[in-house]
Specification:
This protein is an all-alpha fold. It has one domain: Na+/H+ antiporter like fold (Up-down Bundle), CATH 1.20.1530. It is 75% helix and 3% strand. A hairpin with a 5-residue loop joins strand 1 and strand 2. The longest helix is centred in the C-terminal third of the chain and has 31 residues. The radius of gyration is 20 Å and the shape is globular. It starts with a helix and ends in a 6-residue tail after the last helix.
Length: 345
């Protein structure tokens, strides 16, 4: 089990250390302070949408989703349930409207896009079914995370003297760069699904079936460009976070940081995974569910909070502290799963 602790540390430490790079650059005054705010804009408006498009477009088989309908339905209900409960509690007990949506986002929105799949592969090796479940859940629910993020960051931010405006919120969801990235990825994925296939023999005489046209095969320069821009998303967002991070905020925000961190890395994953166990999910589905519910708060929550006039300082603190503590909580979750025989580690 010690190897799993090392693994979880190796999974989350690059996140923490890249944040540290931004923090050091800020303190060395290599760049002006506005530079990190511009990095946030670059991440939110360009790199992250491109990464989401790339991830969704690369789902290998749209039809495979139907084979895992039960775990998809469970995950949808669990995410939506967590969102609703968090929204009600934060609406009632968090005083600052700029912090309400940030706390809601921290409760349900995990860093599955960056840490999730590598965690699953570490747990199951080359087990095809478990990796397939992880890929499908990621492609389906990362877009849902972003839709709910727009909702959580806008529904409490009413303008003075104005009533709750559902049409305005829906407009913000539709025009959000991350939603556009996910949505366009799904459009191209559906189009690719209906493109006819052709069969041919390769150089070794093996019969190969492939689509008549794909961006990857027929427009490789465009595919590579999308891949390169998308790959910048995580480091750019993390360096920007480090450049705006301040330890002085910990004392002022310690109550919310404590509650948000415990919710993300302990309360939500434990309650969700216990329910999953009683619904009969085991070694095929559990690694993907651990990755989806047990990983720290998504890095993209910070640029999103910044762009939507929420408390980005609190959002940054939650990313940092959940990333650090998740190394230990993930170890505990994996150990507990092994003890009840869900899978061997």
């Amino acid at each position: 089990m010690l190897s799993k602790l090392f693994f979880t540390c190796n999974a989350v430490l690059p996140v923490v250390l890249t944040i540290l790079v931004g923090y050091v650059l800020k303190n060395l005054k290599v760049f002006p302070q506005d530079f990190f705010k511009l990095l946030n804009k670059l991440s939110f408006r360009c790199c992250l949408p491109t990464m989401l498009f790339y991830n969704v477009y690369n789902v290998s088989n749209l039809g495979a989703i139907a084979n895992y309908g039960k775990v998809c339905a469970f995950t949808f209900v669990a995410i939506l349930g967590t969102f609703v409960i968090a929204a009600v509690l934060c609406g009632l007990f968090v005083k600052d409207v700029r912090q309400k949506g940030v706390m809601v986002q921290a409760a349900y929105r995990s860093n599955n896009a960056i840490i999730g799949l590598s965690l699953v592969i570490s747990l199951v090796g080359n087990e095809f079914q478990a990796i397939a479940v992880a890929s499908i859940l990621s492609s389906l629910f990362i877009p849902l995370f972003n839709i709910l993020a727009v909702l959580s960051l806008t529904m409490f931010m009413k303008e003075e003297g104005k009533k709750f405006d559902l049409l305005s919120i829906l407009k913000k969801i539709a025009t959000n760069p991350l939603i556009i990235g996910c949505g366009s990825g799904f459009v191209f994925l559906v189009i690719r699904y209906f493109i006819p296939e052709t069969t041919f023999l390769n150089e070794e005489g093996i019969e190969i079936t492939k689509k008549v046209f794909t961006i990857k095969d027929n427009l490789p320069f465009l595919y590579r460009t999308i891949q390169m821009v998308g790959s910048c998303a995580t480091p750019v967002a993390l360096i920007a976070l480090g450049g705006t991070f301040t330890f002085s905020a910990v004392a002022r925000l310690k109550k919310l940081i404590t509650i948000g961190t415990l919710a993300r890395v302990l309360i939500v994953p434990v309650s969700t995974l216990v329910c999953a166990y009683f619904f009969g999910f085991r070694e095929v589905e559990f690694p993907a569910l651990i990755a989806l519910f047990g990983t720290p708060t998504a890095v993209s929550s910070v640029p999103m909070a910044t762009e939507m006039n929420n408390d980005d300082e609190l959002a940054g603190q939650l990313v940092v502290w959940t990333s650090i503590l998740s190394a230990f909580t993930l170890f505990g979750i994996i150990f507990a799963c092994a003890q009840v025989g869900i899978f061997k580690v």
